[in-house]
Amino acid sequence: xxxxxxxxxxxxxxVIDLSxxxxxxxxxxxxRDATPEQLENWYPEFKKNNVECLFDPQCYYPKTxxxxxKCYSYWNNSMCTQLESNNSPEESxxxxxxxxxxxxxxxxxxxxxxxxxFDSNWFNRWESHSLKLIEASAKIVxxxxxxxxxxxxxxxxxxxxxxxxxxxxxxxKWEVDGYYIxxxxxxxxxxxxxxxxxxxxxxxxxxxxxxNKKVIVGYGNHQSLSLSTAKVDAIASGTFLxxxxxxxxxxxxxxxxxxxxxYYYPNSLSEYKFxxxxxxxxxxxxxxxxxxxxxxxxxVDKIFSGMMPSTVKIKETELFKHYLTSLKxxxxxxxxxxxxxxxxxxxxxxxxxxxxxxxxxxKGIYAQTRSFEDIVDVNRSAIQRLDEVRGFSxxxxxxxx
Length: 401
Known about the structure:
401 residues; alpha/beta; TIM Barrel; 2 domains; eight-stranded parallel β-sheet; two-stranded antiparallel ribbon
């Protein structure tokens, strides 16, 4: 499972730096966070530094008033109304979106979708919208893989499994190459505490993979590592929380809360504030929180330089680079040649996290709101359900999907 970068505000240089470090990177560009002129100006530098670009049109909330989104020629706040009319605005929409894809030479074309609240009419509206956009894309978009956005409201992901099977049945004959999945988190949580939400997401993504489709899941974080058990092709993540979980960040609001710096300790799957790193320093356990040898610790070496962490000058950008580099490595470690080996790799991840969290807690070191302690069982439960429902099919198709 690959890690793509989910582009957020101010991430341009970080993307380039990580691409240099990683030997190449893939980024899902965000019109909410870059003007058309910036895309045009930045792309040559991206290309020079081996950054492969995708373009997410971000049509999730058509009535949004974000000024940068409104700079794009395809943006129309009556989009939802138009998709439900008898007119044919879809080809014009796709043609304009394709212009920006050509601008950044994307190999995959992300077909947009609207995030609809789940209700009794959701399936009809969603299917109607999707078919119109698929048909328009087939006419307009050439020489690119077409990935349909599946915007999944949390209300759908907390339904009974027959609703997930209904989605899979509907999409079975759709002529697209794959799916770009946006999953609205349960109650807006960063680390989702609902096993049902996650198991339904795993069942859906695994079902799509068993239909031999490419699957990319956007707006992810380290909880998304569990998607490796569904043979998902890639997850995407970024810097601030608004690109690590899907929220309505598309209003005219630039407010990004920067209250605390967080250090991601990969072996605990948890993030720690610097105040608790100071406690770890005083308790002589800080060095045990340094990333293991298989992880690149160069971005955070200053934290372990023998000084109180809060007195060390380390930029938030370096912490973000560390998080994303660690997540990339963990994505690789979780994905194994067989289904059973992948399940085992995920279980090793969780057992290690449980052990390290408990050891640190015994020394008074807590991750607070970003602890993975309660999430371990959520992920385990979801994976167990995946294994019950799709395990046989995944096991026998693993090398082919």
